[in-house]
Amino acid sequence: MVQVPFTYLANPEAVEEQELEIAGERVVSPVYHYRNHRIWGATARILADLVGRLTGGVAAAGE
After folding, report:
1. What distance in Å separates the CA atoms of residue 46 and residue 49, rounded to the nearest whole number?
2. Among 43, 30, 49, CA closest to 2
3. Contact 50, 58 (CB under 8 A)
4. Domain coordinates of the chain in residue numbers?
5. Radius of gyration (Cα) for the chain, nearest Å?
6. What SS3 state is found at 62?
7. pTM, to two decimals
8. 46 contact partners, CB below 8 Å, separation of at least 6
9. Residue pLDDT, tens place only, 14-55
10. Is the separation of the CB atoms in 16 and 30 below 8 Å?
């Protein structure tokens, strides 16, 4: 388990958008890099959505 401070996740510089291929389709998804961890996929999309809802920011990439 990785515990990431919310203030880190809320920093727009902490997230990048990355194009991934899932089941033959190209999908743009957020990716967080925290220390030596890469948070991506459904977890990153859930976190990006949560951050957007709590800060009034934009929804996760690809939504």
Report:
1. 5
2. 43
3. no
4. 6-55
5. 11
6. coil
7. 0.77
8. 60
9. 999 999 888 999 989 999 999 999 999 899 999 999 999 999
10. yes
